[in-house]
Amino acid sequence: MLSGWFIALLATGYLGLLFAVARFGDARADAGKSIISANVYALSLAVYCTSWTFYGSVGRATSGGLSFLTIYIGPTLMLLCVGVIIKMIRISKAQRITSIADFIASRYGKSQLLAGMVTVIAVIGVVPYIALQLKAMAASVDVLLQHSGSSVEVWGLDSTFLIAVILALFSILFGTRHLDATERHEGMVAAVAFESVVKIIAFMAVGIFVTYGMFGGLGDLFQRAAASADMERLLHLDSGRAGTWTALIILSGLAIIFLPRQFQIIVVENVDESHLKRAVWLFPLYLLLINIFVLPLALGGLLHFGAQGANPDTFVLTLPLARGAEALALLAFIGGLSAATGMVIVETIALSTMVCNDLVMPWLLHSTWLQAEKRQDLSGLLIGIRRAAIALILLLGYIYFRLAGEAYALVGIGLISFTAVAQFAPAMFGGMYWKQGTRAGAVAGLLAGFVVWLYTLLLPSFAKSGWMPSGFVEHGLFGLGWLKAQALFGLGGLDEISHCLWWSMLANMGAYVAVSLNSRPDAVEASQAERFVDVFRFDARNAEARLWRGKASPDALVGLLERFLGAARARQQLAAYALSRQAAGWRNLPADADFVQFAEAELAGAIGSASARVMVASVAQEEDLGLEEVLDILDEATQVRAHSRQLEAKQRELEAATNELREANERLRELDRMKDDFISTVTHELRTPLTSIRALSEMLHEDPRLDLADRSRFLGIIVNEAERLTRLINQILDMAKMESGRAEWTTGAVDLGEVVRESMASLEHLFREKGVALAGNIPASGPVVQADRDRLTQVMINLLSNAVKFVPGGAGRVQVGLSSAAGLVRVEVHDNGPGLTAEECNVIFEKFRQGGNTMTDKPQGTGLGLPISRQIVEYFGGNLWVESEPGAGANFIFTVPLPVPEE
Amino acid sequence: MTKKILIVDDEPNIIISLEFLMKKEGFSVAVAGDGEEALAKVASFAPDLILLDVMMPKKSGFEVCEALRADPSNAGLLIVMLTAKGRDTEVAKGLAIGADAYVTKPFSTKELVARVKTMLGVG
Amino acid sequence: MKRANPIRQRLAALSLLGVPLLTYPLLSLPSGTWGGIPATYLYLFGVWAGLIALAAWVAERRGI
What we know:
The structure holds three protein chains of three kinds. By secondary structure, chain B is an alpha/beta fold. Helix content of chain B is 45%, strand content 20%. Chain B has a single domain (4-120), classed as Response regulator (Rossmann fold). Chain B has five helices and five strands; from the N terminus they run βαβαβαβαβα. Chain C is mainly α. A two-stranded antiparallel sheet of chain C has the order 1-2.
């Protein structure tokens, strides 16, 4: 049993819950732990779905079929243009913009006139929309009460008024916590997101109940509807209304970003641009889900109640009630309440900021009262104004609701509102993407569009409500047929919304573009145009500083901040600013352009950009930069940007070149050092045999009476050393040729077995002399490799002569092996000499580094044999290395690749 | 009293020629094939002059020279460095660490003999 | 010159794709019923859901 009191209690309880959510959100924000996540942000966008969606869509569907969907498809497509939205957010954060009025005014030279115009259009367009929400709430209460047969009046006041009061209270509490309107209202956003969840759950619950509980599912509903000629019409689109369909998509696409509450939620309340990645699909998904059951509900209502049975706008409530599902009806009621309250709260907050900053403040700043008063702290006054504006807007909405009642002017207001805010589109888009758009153009466009809207849409809706004579609609103004309000110039056959949209957009865009092209912006406009259009590229600090010139006293600026922000907040912001400029406090900072810019931005956050500019101008003697000068500076900034980019590129190239040069130089130095070392070593190696030769020959020469034995011994040494010298010179030349790549190679098929056998044979006498055993099992022929026969023989002889040099005489044994595997021929020369340490295994392949005891064997080695051998083997694609351990002999191994068999 | 000369070199043929040359001039001669042997010979043979090659395995001539100069009992010992590396830095280095003379290979036997005699104050 | 953000471009392209798909004359294409449900109804919600799914895929794969 639903009593009035119970419903009142439920509604109050729900609103109490909203207060708690908002309180929680604000508390978390104050503690620095924001609860605004990407999901919360996306859900809060669903403030778009008002009671007009919740109740009205079903009503629209009963007459227009699927055409209600356009209102949700438009936003889906608009939101996908995420670049536009990010640009709006970026500009608003950079310029500390607090509302759509501020956005437009700021773009066109911080114009108070434009700010005021936008505010007036928004208020006129949106207040009836607020009234519609109140009406929806009143109607829903009525449905519940009629059903229960009781009625309630609380303290002699109707429930709608009470709800309006509660909403005003909520908006004041959570919407005007801070003076700085650019500060986010996280509690409010959290509450709105919460409401979004409630309304979609409620609506889908009703939809499922009706579709599957009262009827046999979607198929059943559609089939039963198809049986009736009237309802069958609703199931298909009327291609005759194609123009309306497209117009509504455009209209709703514009509304999703230009309705004051949507601008507030999407732009001003945005915490983090990256949240859009969720919103871009989650919000459309929300819209899709909430619309799935709209048509089924409409059909269900028509089937259940008959064509004239009940108000289709309340099917969401009456259908469950008809089946006695009171709890579900209450849930639907709460859902509808959510839809209405969410809209009203955000809309009044957004509008109150606009009214305060763009209507009241300019008037106050001009009034003598404020000037005479010279009150120290105006922040309290500002908050007061904003609160009063909230109350006033709600009161206006309530009065409109009371006056309009069931009148047409209220029922159709949703789309009428949309068309009003669509008038912002040319100035907004032009402002973001077209630098040539001027203030005069924006004023002309807005004015033209607004007048057309007034004449073709709002006033006719008044006329239909019987509030004014309808002559201008039926016969045209002054009886002129081509001035018929809804068939201008004879353009008929359109519905009123499309008719108004096309004409108003034509007038608006036409005036905006034509006047912009024929007017010159002033200096402020030109610089703002640059800041807006090039927001992603604008080098703020650099250009800002040069776009303002004049004299300002820091004390006057700080005084201004304290006056409008309150002393505490002003001090806090000043400290943060000083920190950002690495100064101990603001007193250490010069009152330069940057400081002025900071002060103006802070003020803009509180009182709007237009008023902020007026206030700063009142305390600073700004030199008037002419338009030419501003354009020069901006031009120069662009050029400087281009130049500096070029310069940077050049510098990077230069740095790279320098690095390369340095490395090349380093390599050369290293080579030089190596060459030096080499020459020094070669010198040493050549001088050593020369020393013996010279000393001994001098002695022979000077002392003819020398013993015959000594004489022949000395001559023997001289011959040996001369041989060594020759060998050395040959090998050095050999090495040098190979290293410089000028060595001559005679490559051909070489039988490696033959090479090994011949080398062994040629050194046999050497082995025999020293008593060293030379053994090897070498096949009679092959393997055959591609190489230079003489060179390989040179390698083989070098390895064998090394071996015989280092093995002990008498007990020495040298074993030669030849094998082929894995495409390689492998030759091993194994000795039982003293062996090599791991370090020596590497060293012996370096030039002039010999292993073993050189004392005894030095004259035979040049220290170049192994390096040359390694070069030869590597030239033919093989390897030369030694495997050895001290005391275990040495095994010199080289490999040469076998030729790849041709296919 | 015959002056004693120690010849240190890792090249056997150079040792042969120097030994023959110095003996012919009437000096008492000992030889060593590397740095370590040289230090041992200095202790046992107590030479008046040492002909010291720079580039040797185990201990270079510089190291031997430094070791000898670090021992005060060798205060009177004359050191003549022999090097096949003719760079000025080598000469400077040898003199800096206490060599008395520096001779570049290949040398003139006459000059070397004359020099040794002058240093020893004979002839 | 900074290159335009590819994710934003893809999303904008989806929007451009949606316009012809969700307006006339393409919209008059589906007719009759599919499984008892009007084809237009299914078509509208189907294309819409498809756009949303694609947008989710594009946007969530790498941030905006």
